[in-house]
Amino acid sequence: MGIDIKTIGIVGAGQMGSGIAHVCALSGLSVRINDRDTDRLRNSLATVNGNLQRQVVKGTISEDERRATIERIVPVDSFDDFGPCDIVIEAATEDEVVKRQIFSALCPSLRPETMVATNTSSISITRLAASTDRPERFIGIHFMNPVPIMQLVELIRGIATEDPTYEAAKAFIGKLGKTVTVSEDFPAFIVNRILLPMINEAIYTLYEGVGSVDSIDTAMKLGANHPMGPLQLADFIGLDTCLSIMQVLYEGLADSKYRPCPLLVKYVEAGWLGRKAKRGFYDYRGDVPVPTR
Ligand SMILES: NC(=O)c1ccc[n+]([C@@H]2O[C@H](COP(=O)([O-])OP(=O)(O)OC[C@H]3O[C@@H](n4cnc5c(N)ncnc54)[C@H](O)[C@@H]3O)[C@@H](O)[C@H]2O)c1
């Protein structure tokens, strides 16, 4: 049997790290969370608290549960504070160099038996595992956004991932009340291999002038019954993350059909990264989102 996971470390307190902290703490697990940006770390706790408060208002959790959950999340400044963790989940920026640097700095602070996971959307688990001192205890645990709402978690083994690591990760996801699907270690796994080319194509449709932001999103919501338009979804994911995933697909599969749309590149270069930057295909700075094209 694998390790019984009770204490979780999280690196990266952005959209995903905060969501992972929320569901783990709500399930009774102890959470330690780190970000290199202290403002992001502070905002993360406020975001989790706000989302828990909404659950209290909806009646899905009690006020006591909210208080106990938030008390189980401890922000930490240093990887040395991850000593007691049974698993550390990396949920930092979708950039292989950033992730590799995190793993090299993180591993010396961990007990030998501690598992390490990545929430990467697309990058090779085998390659990331190779930048740790424990590839056999390394695995891809790909949560979906927003974590408290989305049911699915993709599990991806690297070439060296051992069975007890896989079993412990599967049991951990089960404890969170989520459903596991298993993907082989191919660029962008299952969900993003299918979803991101669709989003990229929606951006090409905008780029080529086939339709406006509003027409494209309305077309896909009402014509294909998607709950969100693809451009709205791109803003929600983060345009930097969308671009990184397309680059991983393009380079990893060496097929021109995955070429990132130049308009996506331009938005990222402008710092228009979607909701988290308050501007992307929509401008979120006012009361209602306004299409930017
Ligand atoms: N956004 C999504 O819809 C989604 C869904 C599933 C998986 N993911 C994956 O989750 C990861 C995080 O995505 P996100 O949307 O939360 O991004 P984000 O931009 O909201 O957050 C990333 C965080 O990582 C922090 N960070 C960067 N380098 C760091 C370092 N060296 N040490 C500590 N913290 C560091 C940043 O300060 C930031 O707070 C990415 O790998 C992404 O591909 C994203």
From TrEMBL:
Signal peptide as annotated in the record: none
Segments forming domain 3-hydroxyacyl-CoA dehydrogenase C-terminal: 189-284
Annotated Pfam families: 3HCDH (PF00725), 3HCDH_N (PF02737)
Annotated ranges, domain 3-hydroxyacyl-CoA dehydrogenase NAD binding: 7-185
Biological process (GO), any one: fatty acid metabolic process
InterPro entries reported for this sequence: 3-OHacyl-CoA_DH (IPR022694), 3-OHacyl-CoA_DH_CS (IPR006180), 3-OHacyl-CoA_DH_NAD-bd (IPR006176), 3HC_DH_C (IPR006108), 6-PGluconate_DH-like_C_sf (IPR008927), 6PGD_dom2 (IPR013328), NAD(P)-bd_dom_sf (IPR036291)
Site entry (Important for catalytic activity), positions: 142
GO MF terms held by the record: 3-hydroxybutyryl-CoA dehydrogenase activity; NAD+ binding
Swiss-Prot/TrEMBL keywords: NAD, Oxidoreductase
Gene3D superfamilies in UniProt: N-(1-d-carboxylethyl)-l-norvaline Dehydrogenase, domain 2, NAD(P)-binding Rossmann-like Domain
Entry's EC annotation: 1.1.1.157
Positions of NAD(+) binding: 12-17, 35, 94, 99, 121, 145, 276
PANTHER family: 3-HYDROXYACYL-COA DEHYDROGENASE FAMILY PROTEIN (PTHR48075), 3-HYDROXYBUTYRYL-COA DEHYDROGENASE (PTHR48075:SF5)
Family listed: Belongs to the 3-hydroxyacyl-CoA dehydrogenase family.
Protein name, UniProt field: 3-hydroxybutyryl-CoA dehydrogenase
Organism for this UniProt entry: Methylobacterium oryzihabitans
